[in-house]
Amino acid sequence: MSCKYEDADERLNRLARVRENQRKSRARRQQYIEELEQKVA
Known about the structure:
Order of helices and strands: H
Number of domains: 1
Oligomer: single chain
Structural class: mainly alpha
Distance between the termini: 45 Å
Largest sheet: none
């Protein structure tokens, strides 16, 4: 998966992007769940 030629800075930048994308995904999912709960309530 990881290229052995990838330097540390690129790896850290990629990991930071992945973390941010995961955070946004969790926020979107939470928002979606709240909307569904309001519709059912």
